[in-house]
Design a protein that fits this description.
Blueprint: H1 2-23, H2 25-30, H3 34-80, H4 83-89, H5 91-132, H6 134-153, H7 155-181, H8 183-188, H9 190-238, H10 240-243, H11 251-260, H12 262-295, H13 298-303, E1 315-324, E2 335-344, E3 348-353, H14 359-366, E4 374-379, E5 382-383, H15 389-393, E6 396-399, H16 417-426, E7 435-436, E8 439-440, H17 447-461, E9 465-469, H18 477-493, E10 497-501, E11 513-518, E12 521-527
Parallel strand pairs: 3-10, 3-11, 6-9, 9-10
Antiparallel strand pairs: 1-2, 1-4, 4-5, 7-8, 11-12
Helix pairs in contact: 1-3, 1-5, 3-5, 3-12, 5-6, 5-7, 5-11, 5-12, 6-9, 7-9, 9-11, 9-12
This protein binds adenosine-5'-triphosphate.
Length: about 525
């Protein structure tokens, strides 16, 4: 602000100097003062140049620093948020906010400076006008205020249209990911491709309409502001003389000053659309941050971040555990539970059940990805409360049905190259892929092969509990047998506990415990061959 004021003042001084010299040009030449004014003129321009340059660099640095902080903050908020919150917010909104909205703010940084500097220039030039003629100053102020109020009156409509275009753009991202993620399915079906394109075009048209309306409102504002400005300058020669009899002495100075206002006023009015877009973008960023924080347990997680792992357990107990999904149409929201269950260390548990019976939901409850809405999980006699939930989650490693294979082995640093190579060979992937510097050489593989690499990642993590959601479904019969008859026993031998959703009834005898999920209830659970747990 200080730099903005100095540069605005210097800018106004340039006007005062030129006005002064041009008015007294013959006297100044006669008295040989021209050099003095020239030095003053150069000095003022230098001050303006230096402060303006510094102001713009500083502002860019500040804005980029704020954006950097926001970007990391949102990434962290997403990382700390709960899965249920993420499901509610939606990926598109997060993508759109982190990419487009932050970029919009970044691009407006220099413009904020120009607007700020123009405001200070208008202020000092107005002071200059007021010093020469208070009546002229009043007339200009009234006209400027009138112009500003017209803009304010339409601010709500502008904001509504901007929000509309943000929402349409979120939908566009969703349609685009439908096209890219479902490219194969789209290529196979012309009607699907047509429908998807139709929806995309509709959303694009909605975004275009909202944006055009906003731009039209801005354009009208711009023209009105120019007319207001011309009216103000016209008033200097047509109206003010009839209101003030001393005015004729200063009319040239005041009119020149008012003409001098055209640059900054144009910058301010021309900058309003970008300023409003950036403000709207900033509000979207902050709203996302709020939504992420509101339902997240971030404060707890941060307090207990140092508890990064629980190294083992003997017994895990579910006591009346219950979770209900948010209502999303349909007859009633789906719920799982209440579930009572004991899981002992080293036990292999198979879970079966029909589609939509709640197996995945149960696994998410078990792993702490869904916060229980009733009941509790007890780990070696200690209830799993919010304060140890992160640590509790670190008991698990999983290959979910909708698994994501990370090319880089994030968080896996302690395994020797020899161990990694041995496992790669055991999983029959060593001829296809290698691991170098903590990264797979390639992940462009078949689904079954990608699943083997995901399995490798979990094996290298060596967590106490392994979760597999229909892991073997994509494997050939030979490797499927290897998974049940060699991989699972190897894990068990290491002391790992395994909980696997599976429909491979040929291998049910290998489980210590077999559970069955029916409509959100663990209806049937029995010990296999006398081994295993007391449910
Ligand atoms: N995020 C969600 N929001 C609302 N309802 C959900 C959500 N996820 C799942 N459901 C509902 O919960 C029910 C159980 O889903 P779940 O994925 O747990 O079943 P599943 O037994 O794993 O099924 P499948 O064998 O088909 O994978 C389904 O009826 C589904 O509609």
């Amino acid at each position: 602000m200080a730099l903005g004021c100095i540069s605005g003042l210097a800018n106004a001084l340039v006007l005062a100097l030129i006005n002064n010299v041009s008015e007294n040009i013959s006297d100044i030449h006669k008295e040989n003062h021209i050099l003095y004014y020239l030095v003053l003129f150069i000095l003022t321009i230098s001050i303006y140049g230096l402060t303006q340059q510094r102001l713009m660099t500083k502002a860019a640095k500040m804005v980029e620093k704020a954006i950097d902080r926001l970007r990391v903050q949102i990434f962290e908020s997403v990382r700390h948020t709960e899965l249920s919150t993420l499901e509610k917010i939606g990926k598109e909104r997060i993508f759109n906010t982190l990419s487009k909205e932050l970029q919009t703010i970044s691009q407006s940084a220099q413009l904020f400076v120009i607007i700020g500097q123009s405001i200070s220039l208008v202020f000092f030039t107005s002071l200059y006008i007021a010093w020469h003629s208070f009546v002229a100053f009043l007339v200009i102020s009234i006209l400027i205020l009138m112009g500003a109020s017209i803009h304010r009156l339409r601010a709500n409509e502008i904001q509504r249209n901007m929000q509309l275009s943000f929402e349409s753009e979120n939908k566009l991202i969703q349609r685009l990911s439908d096209l890219l993620d479902g490219f194969k399915e789209v290529k196979l079906s012309v009607p699907r491709a047509d429908d998807l394109e139709h929806e995309f075009v509709m959303d694009s048209t909605r975004a275009k309409r909202a944006k055009t309306t906003t731009q039209t409102l801005f354009a009208t504002d711009f023209v009105l502001s120019q007319i207001t400005f011309f009216a103000a300058t016209g008033a200097m020669v047509f109206i003010v003389p009839s209101l003030s009899h001393v005015y004729t002495d200063v009319v040239i100075k005041v009119t020149t000053a008012s003409l001098f206002l055209i640059g900054p006023i144009t910058s301010i009015v021309g900058g309003i659309p970008i300023y409003t877009t950036a403000t709207e973008a900033a509000q979207n960023v902050l709203a996302l941050e709020d939504d992420l924080k509101r339902e997240s347990t971030q404060s707890h997680n941060q307090d207990h971040e140092h508890v990064s792992h629980v190294h083992g357990f003997e017994e895990l107990r579910f006591e009346g555990a219950y979770y209900q999904h948010a209502h999303k149409g349909g007859d009633r929201p789906f719920f799982v539970g209440p579930v009572d269950l004991n899981i002992k260390r080293g036990q292999v548990t198979f879970i079966t059940g029909g589609n939509g019976s709640g197996k995945t939901t149960f696994i998410r409850m078990l792993t702490g990805l869904y916060e229980l809405q009733a009941g509790q999980i007890v780990l070696d006699g200690q209830p799993v409360t919010e304060s140890i939930r992160d640590a509790y989650r670190s008991l698990f490693t999983a290959v979910f049905a909708d698994f994501h294979l990370f090319k880089q082995l994030y968080g896996i640093h302690h395994n020797s190259q020899e161990e990694i190579d041995d496992w790669l060979a055991f999983l029959e992937m060593n001829t296809k892929v290698s691991v170098k510097d903590g990264e797979f050489s390639s992940i462009d593989l078949s689904t079954g092969q990608r699943k083997r690499l995901a399995l490798l990642s979990t094996i290298l993590e060596n967590r106490p509990i392994y979760i597999f959601d229909e892991w073997a479904a994509d494997q050939d019969p030979i490797f499927r047998r290897k998974f049940y008859e060699q991989v699972l026993p190897k894990l068990k031998e290491r002391g790992n506990t395994v909980i696997a959703i599976t429909h491979d009834d040929a291998y049910f005898h290998l489980a210590d415990v077999h559970l069955k999920m029916v409509e959100g209830q663990l209806m049937e659970h029995h010990e296999v061959e006398g081994k295993g747990v007391t449910p």
